[in-house]
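Re: [ENG-882] Designed sequences occasionally contain unexpected residues at chain ends

Forwarding the minimal case from QA. C-alpha cells:
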C-alpha cells in the first residue's frame, strides 16, 4: 500500500474522509447564517413578516426559505453587477444557498451543542447621540389592512445657517409597517404649510419644491457615516420632509417617527453631485409604451466633463420597468457596469454604495438603459388587459432614470460638472415645453390631485369647482357621486388626449 492510501484509510477510520462534508446543522452553520443575513429584518418588530431566529421558527418554513433564497428574492437586493463590489452587500454566497439546500435534504438536523445566540442588534441610535433629533409631533394611524399608503411629513428644522450632514437615522415607532422613507429638504415653507391640512398628520403628493435630498431609509439597512469628509448639504431655513411608504401589517399601528441628523464639524473639502441619466426622471424621453410591448427601451447618456470619483448608484422607475443598467464607457475603451438590475421591483429601491470609489476620467460616457414590459406576462403590470402607458408622475404612469453620486476629483472644476448637469436638465425642460401634451399632463395631474381637499383619495362633488363639476362627474362610473382613483385616471387620460394636439 502506498503512503497516500494509508492516509486515506486512516482518515476513513476516523470518519473524516477527504471530500466528505461535515453535516450541515442548524446549531452549526444554518442558524448563525440566518441571523447574519436575515435577522436584520426577520426578528420581532422588524419589517420581515415573521422571525427567523430559532430552530422552531425556521424549520417549518424551510421549503419556502429554500425557494426564496434560490430565486434570490431574499435577502432583498437588486443590484447584480459583478464588476464593482458594493459595501454592505447582503446577498447570500452560492455556497450558503447550497448549504441551506443540503440542510433540508438531510432532514433539517438541529445539531449538537447550544442553540446559536443571535447578535445583539443596536437598541438606541446606531451611531450614538445625533446632533439634531426631530420627532413627528403627532402619530399617523396606519390601518390593519388595505392598500399601501404614500404620505409625507414635514418636520420644522429652519437652521439659521448652512450645515452639512454625515448621516441620517430614522427610528420608526412601528417598524413593521414602514416599508421605505426618503428624506427631502424644503426651504420654501410649502411642505410645512400643507402638513395636516386634510385633518390628518402629513400630506399627500409631491407638490412641494425640493431643496435637496438627504438619502433615505430602507428596512434592514444599517446606518453609516458618509466616507472620508463627504457630507450632504443642509441649506439654512430648510425643513425636513419624510416621504414615507407604509405597508399595512395586519394590525392597526400608529407611526410617529424620530429622525436623528449627524452633522459634519466643518464644510466638506469635496463636493457631492447627483447625476441623473436620463435627467428629470426621463421626462424628456417621450416614454410612450404601447399595450403588449415587452421590450420597450429607454436609453440616454451623459458625458463627464471632468474627472470624478463615483460613490453610489440608485435607480428609479415604476411598475412596468423590468431591467435597468448603467455602464461607464471610459475614454480608453474599457466598459464598467456600475449598476445592473435584472428584476426591477418598485418596492425595494435602494442606494448601492461602492465598496471603493470608482475613478471615472473626463470623457467617460455614462450610459443608462431601462427596459419596460407592458405585456400581460409582466406580473407587476397594474393594468389587465395592458393599457398604453406614458411618462407621468402617477405610479401607474412610467418614468425612469439611474442616479450616480459623484465627487469631482480635487483640482477639477465642480462648476463645469454642475453646468453640464444643468444643461441636461434644461434640454429636458425644453423638450417638455415643446411638447404640449407632456407639459399639459404634468400640470393637469397636479391640479386635479390638489382638488382633493380632505386628502381621502376621492374627489367628492363638493371638491370639484362648479363649472367643471357636471362634466367631471360623467366619469363617476359606479354612481357614488365621487371619483375614485380609477375614475380620476380615466378623467386624466381624456384630458390629456384633449391637451395633446
Ligand atoms: C431587508 C429586509 C429583509 C431581509 C434582509 C430579508 N428579508 Fe425576507 N422578507 C422581508 C419582507 C419585507 C418580506 C415580506 C414580503 C415582501 O415585502 O417582499 C419578506 C418575506 C420573506 C419570506 C416569505 C416569502 C413568501 O413568498 O412567502 C421568506 C421565506 C423570507 N422572507 C426569507 C428570508 C431569508 C431566508 C432571508 C435571509 C437569507 C431574508 N428573508 C432576508 C424582508 C427581508
Amino acid at each position: 500500500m502506498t503512503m497516500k492510501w494509508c492516509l486515506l484509510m486512516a482518515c476513513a477510520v476516523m470518519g473524516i474522509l477527504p471530500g466528505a462534508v461535515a453535516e450541515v446543522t442548524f446549531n452549526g452553520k444554518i442558524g448563525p447564517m440566518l441571523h447574519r443575513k436575515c435577522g436584520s429584518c426577520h426578528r420581532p418588530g422588524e419589517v420581515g413578516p415573521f422571525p427567523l431566529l430559532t430552530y422552531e421558527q425556521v424549520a417549518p418554513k424551510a421549503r419556502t426559505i429554500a425557494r426564496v433564497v434560490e430565486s434570490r428574492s431574499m435577502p432583498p437586493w437588486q443590484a447584480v453587477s459583478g464588476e464593482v463590489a458594493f459595501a454592505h452587500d447582503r446577498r447570500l454566497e452560492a455556497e450558503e444557498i447550497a448549504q441551506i439546500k443540503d440542510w433540508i435534504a438531510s432532514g433539517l438536523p438541529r445539531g449538537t451543542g447550544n442553540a446559536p445566540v443571535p447578535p445583539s442588534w443596536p437598541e438606541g441610535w446606531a451611531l450614538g447621540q445625533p446632533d439634531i433629533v426631530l420627532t413627528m409631533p403627532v402619530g399617523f394611524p396606519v390601518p390593519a389592512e388595505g392598500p399601501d399608503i404614500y404620505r409625507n411629513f414635514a418636520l420644522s428644522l429652519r437652521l439659521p445657517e448652512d450645515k452639512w450632514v454625515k448621516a441620517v437615522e430614522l427610528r420608526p415607532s412601528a417598524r413593521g409597517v414602514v416599508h421605505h422613507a426618503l428624506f427631502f429638504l424644503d426651504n420654501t415653507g410649502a411642505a410645512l404649510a400643507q402638513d395636516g391640512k386634510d385633518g390628518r398628520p402629513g400630506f399627500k403628493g409631491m407638490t412641494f419644491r425640493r431643496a435637496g435630498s438627504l438619502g433615505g431609509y430602507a428596512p434592514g439597512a444599517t446606518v453609516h457615516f458618509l466616507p472620508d469628509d463627504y457630507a450632504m448639504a443642509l441649506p439654512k431655513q430648510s425643513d425636513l420632509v419624510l416621504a414615507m411608504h407604509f405597508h399595512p401589517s395586519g394590525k392597526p399601528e400608529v407611526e410617529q417617527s424620530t429622525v436623528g441628523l449627524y452633522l459634519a464639524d466643518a464644510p466638506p473639502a469635496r463636493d457631492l453631485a447627483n447625476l441623473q441619466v436620463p435627467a428629470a426622471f426621463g421626462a424628456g424621453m417621450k416614454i410612450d409604451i404601447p399595450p403588449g410591448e415587452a421590450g420597450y427601451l429607454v436609453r440616454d447618456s451623459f458625458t463627464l466633463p471632468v474627472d470624478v470619483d463615483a460613490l453610489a448608484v440608485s435607480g428609479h422607475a415604476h411598475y412596468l420597468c423590468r431591467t435597468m443598467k448603467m455602464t461607464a464607457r471610459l475614454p480608453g475603451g474599457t466598459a464598467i457596469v456600475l449598476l445592473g438590475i435584472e428584476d426591477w421591483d418598485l418596492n425595494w429601491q435602494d442606494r448601492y454604495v461602492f465598496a471603493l470609489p470608482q475613478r471615472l476620467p473626463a470623457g467617460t460616457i455614462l450610459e443608462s438603459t431601462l427596459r419596460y414590459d407592458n405585456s400581460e406576462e409582466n406580473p407587476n403590470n397594474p393594468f389587465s388587459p395592458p393599457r398604453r402607458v406614458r411618462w407621468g408622475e402617477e405610479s401607474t404612469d412610467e418614468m425612469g432614470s439611474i442616479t450616480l453620486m459623484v465627487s469631482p476629483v480635487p483640482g477639477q472644476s465642480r462648476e463645469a460638472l454642475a453646468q453640464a448637469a444643468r444643461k441636461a436638465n434644461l434640454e429636458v425642460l425644453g423638450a417638455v415645453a415643446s411638447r404640449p401634451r407632456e407639459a399639459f399632463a404634468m400640470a393637469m395631474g397636479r391640479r386635479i390631485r390638489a382638488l382633493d381637499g380632505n386628502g381621502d383619495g376621492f374627489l367628492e362633488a363638493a371638491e370639484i369647482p362648479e363649472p367643471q363639476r357636471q362634466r367631471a362627474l360623467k366619469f363617476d362610473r359606479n354612481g357614488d357621486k365621487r371619483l375614485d382613483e380609477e375614475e380620476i385616471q380615466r378623467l386624466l387620460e381624456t384630458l390629456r388626449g384633449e391637451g395633446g394636439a
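QA comment: On inspection the terminal residues look reasonable. Residues 64 and 152 are 35 Å apart (CA to CA). Proposing we downgrade this to a documentation issue.
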